[in-house]
Each structure stands twice: as structure tokens, then as C-alpha cells.
Design brief:
Elements: E1 3-7, H1 17-25, E2 28-34, H2 46-64, E3 70-74, H3 77-88, E4 92-96, H4 101-116, E5 120-124, H5 146-153, H6 195-200, H7 205-219, H8 223-226, H9 239-243, H10 249-257, H11 266-286, H12 315-329, H13 336-348, H14 353-366, H15 371-381, H16 389-398, H17 413-420, H18 425-430, H19 446-458
Helix pairs in contact: 3-4, 5-11, 11-16, 13-14, 14-16, 15-16
The structure holds flavin-adenine dinucleotide (FAD).
Flavin-adenine dinucleotide is lined by residues 227, 235-239, 242-243, 273-274, 276-277, 280, 353, 356-357, 360, 378, 382, 384-386, 389-390, 393-394, 397.
Length: 462
């Protein structure tokens, strides 16, 4: 009987335990479902939809080389998986686990259905080195602070990555229905804003492995210093590939461990950044409302200027906040590092980590705009938009999160630029009009807005 391997956030052929299990059974068929209907599943942002389109094309090729056809379907995943398994007379169903609450509920329902139908179903650990429930404090609860979390997980073992399965004999029966990818409308049209994304990325495992090899050879040794420099190619740029599972964290750690004896502490710092990724998922698993609720409830009373809440002023003030938001989104705040970052984001779907922190801090603390508004903008525009890392990092910057940056740490975009882009190369690359009269004056007084933010914070209930 043929097996089904259901692909989700694991769009790769290597280190894919579900694919291997299906292939070992004999004839395997792969299924991807674009689910925009099941309750609680967060709809993908625009840049993510672009990434997904190209990733599915790449995955189809990678799987074809292994003799595994890829079916594409859109709709409620539970119904489609059932329908496909029934139409094929499948004996087994395999997938790699997801950790969002809505996704887990959906998967549990399918597992129960498979059991009742006498079908074998099995799920695997593939996208996190340590599953969120496997890591607990001494008291048995979730971690709230990164350092003890990292102390605990960095001492734990994890498996080696798996090879892709050998090309199999292929599925010889009649394939069930599959849709044309082009009919899904994942690519932007009217206007098509994706040219900069296409210049910057080739979604798929091939580029992921190239970037990984290059980074391990050339970037890792100096990573601890260069990672903070947006003017240098100092970080790995693996985030979208990890987000979509075109590369697994097991593959990344394995490649990196071969280089453990490099001088400097690049490898250790890099491992701990991957640890942050795991910590974000740990938080999201324990707080499924991470993108919509302050982890520190005192922040529910913060007088945001936008969107209107307790602190909303008269109409004029609200309109002004909307203008400020647009200036931030479009890279016209008059703070070069922030504007360069926002333009880099719009053009390439990615922004350097240091600049993400500076830009998010300006939005939340100087412009007084709710972190959720920024989180949603990033969700729509990042190719690595991640349901755990994005809200966790926004809450970290805002001060409302677990182990958040202390509120008084308000990044000054000017001193940050002087320190991390000392020759102005990064801002120069993204803001050609920087030294002309066309470049706007700062939209906010840093000192006064900082004071206001600290006062607002001081008034929150503890
Ligand atoms: P590297 O420095 O090479 O790090 C290697 C990998 O470690 C990254 O690819 C990523 O998977 C992980 N990582 C590094 N830093 C973090 C971090 N702070 N939190 C979680 N994982 C991390 N990262 C996302 O993957 N998706 C997001 O949606 C996202 N949103 C963010 C929003 C804000 C406001 C901020 C401040 C940070 C956000 N980050 C997010 C974290 C970080 O900025 C990116 O992971 C990083 O810039 C990716 O570049 P890189 O692959 O070159 O990273």
C-alpha cells in the first residue's frame, strides 16, 4: 500500500524523517496543503507567500529525483488529508511535528481519524533540536529566561542529520487530484513587488546548503563580532530556510560542529543564536497567544499612541500616529539606520538583526506605536516571518515579553549607527538621497519621546 508524507514547515528532502519513513515503506506520495481555512491558523504574509510558491517548485523537483510525486491541494487540511489517503488506499501517513496550538489540534484530529480507520500514522521531530515539552525547569515548568534555558539545552545531545532516502520504485497507481500552483495566487500581481526578493534569494534547499557551507567556511570564525555589523556579510542569512524547513537545525549544528576548534567564540555564539530560535518556540508553545497578548499583563495599560487604546488622544493625534507608522514602514523617519533597515526589508524581505532591534525600538518606544502593529508589518514583509520568533522578538524589544530587554534600554538609532555601521556603508547602500535635501528631518525628538516612554512605563501597574 502506498504511504503519504504530508509536508508542512519542512520543505526538504534531506534530514526529513517523515519522508524517509514513507520511502522505507515502498511507494510514497507527498502532499502539501495550503490551509487558509482551519481555525486558528495564521494566514501567511505577502513575502511568505512568494517564498512558499518558489519553495514548492524546488521541492517538487527535489522529490521527483527521488521518485516521489508531490500533490498540491488547497483547503481544510483535515479534510484533504483524509480524502487523499482514502482515494489512494494508503496504509500509512507520516509527518514532521509542528508546535503551534492550532496546528497541533489539527494534527491530533487526523491522528485520531487514522487510528479509527486502521491506518498507521506517525510523526517525527524535525524542526527543533529540543521539543518544547522536553525541556523544563527543575520545578517541571516552562523556562521564562533564556540563560537558564540555554544552560539546560546546550548540555543535551541531539541526533545527527539524516540523508535523503534512496530513489524508490515510485508510485505506480493513479494519483489523486492535484492543483496547479499558479492558480493559488501566491505571487504578487498588480503591482508585482517581488523583483528585489527574486534578486536576493533562491528559495529551496540548494541555496540553503550553499549558504550554510559558505558561512561555516568563511563566516563562523568572526561571527561573534561581525554578526552585529549590517554593513558586512557577518551573519548566516539562513533564517528563511530554517523558517520553511529547507534546512534543519540538525544539519546546521552538524555542519558547524566540524568547525568547533576555530579560534574565537564564533561557533559558541552562533549555537546560542540557534538556541534563541528554540527559546522562541518554547515560549510560543507555552503561550499560543504570543502574537496577540503581552506576556507581562501590566503592558495592557500602556498608553499607545496607535492604535487607539486607553491612551488614544483626540483625532488629530491619532492621525499623526498613523502618519508616523507609514513613515516607519516606508523608511522615511529621518533616522538613517531605521530607514535603511525598512528599505532593506521592503526590497529583500529580510533585515539585519541589529537593525531589526533598532527599528522596532524606535517604533515602539519613540513613536509610541503598539508592538503588535510592528509585528504584523514584519509578518507581512519578512521572508523569514516566523510564528514564534517574530512575536517573541517584538515582545523582547517592547519589554512586554519573557526575559525582555529592560524597558529603559531604548536604542538610540544614531549611536547604534555610529557603532555598527561606522563608515555609513549600510545606510548609504539603502538611502541614495541621504546627503541631499530630499532626505527627511527626524520625525520625532529622540530625547523627549524617550522621556515620555519612560514616564508611561513608570505609570504601569506592577
Ligand atoms: P544568524 O545571526 O546567522 O543566526 C542563525 C539563526 O539563528 C537564524 O537564522 C535564526 O534562525 C536564529 N536566530 C538568530 N537570532 C535569533 C533571535 N533573536 N530569535 C530567534 N532566532 C534567532 N527571526 C526569524 O527567524 N523570524 C522572524 O520572524 C524574526 N523576527 C524578528 C523580529 C524582531 C523585532 C527582531 C529584533 C528579531 C527577529 N528575528 C526573527 C530574529 C533575527 O533578527 C533573525 O533570525 C536574524 O536576523 C536572521 O538572520 P541570520 O539568519 O543571518 O541570523
Amino acid at each position: 500500500k502506498p504511504s503519504i508524507v504530508w509536508f508542512r514547515d519542512d520543505l526538504r528532502a534531506t534530514d526529513n524523517p517523515a519522508l524517509r519513513a514513507a520511502a522505507e515503506d515502498g511507494a510514497a506520495v507527498a502532499l502539501y496543503v495550503l490551509d487558509e481555512e482551519s481555525p486558528g491558523i495564521r494566514p501567511l504574509g505577502g513575502a511568505s507567500r512568494w517564498w512558499l510558491h518558489h519553495s514548492l517548485l524546488a521541492l517538487r523537483e527535489d522529490l521527483a529525483a527521488l521518485g516521489v510525486p508531490l500533490l498540491l491541494r488547497r483547503g481544510r487540511a483535515a479534510e484533504i488529508v483524509r480524502e487523499t489517503a482514502t482515494a489512494m488506499g494508503s496504509g500509512s501517513l507520516y509527518w514532521n511535528r509542528r508546535y503551534g496550538e492550532a496546528e497541533r489540534t489539527l494534527d491530533a484530529g487526523i491522528k485520531a481519524w487514522a487510528r479509527e480507520s486502521g491506518m498507521h500514522s506517525e510523526s517525527f521531530q524535525a524542526s527543533l533540536l529540543h521539543e518544547p515539552w522536553a525541556v523544563t525547569t527543575k520545578q517541571g515548568g516552562p523556562f521564562k529566561v533564556f540563560t537558564p534555558f540555554w544552560r539546560t539545552v546546550s548540555g543535551l545531545d541531539f541526533r545527527d542529520p539524516l540523508e535523503a532516502p534512496e530513489p524508490g520504485r515510485g508510485f505506480s497507481g493513479r494519483l489523486p487530484e492535484s492543483e496547479e500552483l499558479d492558480t493559488w495566487g501566491l505571487l504578487p500581481r498588480n503591482p508585482d513587488w517581488s523583483a528585489g526578493l527574486a534578486e536576493s534569494w533562491q528559495p529551496g534547499s540548494a541555496q540553503a546548503h550553499e549558504l550554510l557551507d559558505d558561512f561555516v567556511q568563511h563566516g563562523l570564525a568572526d561571527y561573534s563580532v561581525n554578526r552585529d555589523r549590517p554593513d558586512l556579510p557577518g551573519s548566516s542569512r539562513l533564517s528563511p530556510f530554517l523558517r520553511w524547513g529547507q534546512l534543519s537545525p540538525f544539519e546546521v549544528r552538524h555542519a558547524q560542529q566540524g568547525r568547533r576548534r576555530e579560534p574565537g567564540d564564533g561557533a559558541a555564539v552562533f549555537a546560542s543564536e540557534l538556541g534563541w530560535r528554540e527559546f522562541c518556540w518554547h515560549q510560543y508553545f507555552h503561550h499560543p497567544d504570543l502574537a496577540t497578548a503581552n506576556l507581562r499583563p501590566g503592558f495592557d495599560h500602556y498608553p499607545w499612541a496607535w492604535p487607539g487604546g486607553q491612551g488614544a488622544g483626540p483625532l488629530g493625534e491619532v492621525t499623526e500616529a498613523a502618519d508616523l507608522l507609514r513613515a516607519w514602514q516606508e523608511g522615511r523617519t529621518g533616522f538613517p539606520m531605521v530607514d535603511a533597515g525598512q528599505r532593506q526589508l521592503w526590497h529583500t524581505g529580510w533585515m539585519h538583526n541589529r537593525v531589526r532591534m533598532v527599528s522596532a525600538s524606535l517604533l515602539v518606544k519613540n513613536l509610541g506605536i503598539h508592538w503588535q502593529v510592528g509585528e504584523q508589518w514584519f509578518w507581512d514583509t519578512l521572508v523569514d516571518a516566523d510564528p514564534a520568533s517574530n512575536p517573541a522578538n517584538w515582545q523582547w524589544v517592547a519589554g512586554s515579553g519573557a526575559d525582555a530587554s529592560p524597558f529603559f534600554r531604548i536604542f538610540n538609532p544614531e549611536t547604534q549607527a555610529a557603532k555598527f555601521d561606522p563608515d555609513g556603508r549600510y545606510v548609504g547602500r539603502w538611502i541614495p538621497e541621504l546627503s541631499t535635501a530630499d532626505y527627511p528631518e527626524p520625525v520625532v525628538d529622540l530625547k523627549a519621546s524617550r522621556r515620555e516612554a519612560l514616564d508611561a512605563y513608570g505609570s504601569l501597574p506592577r
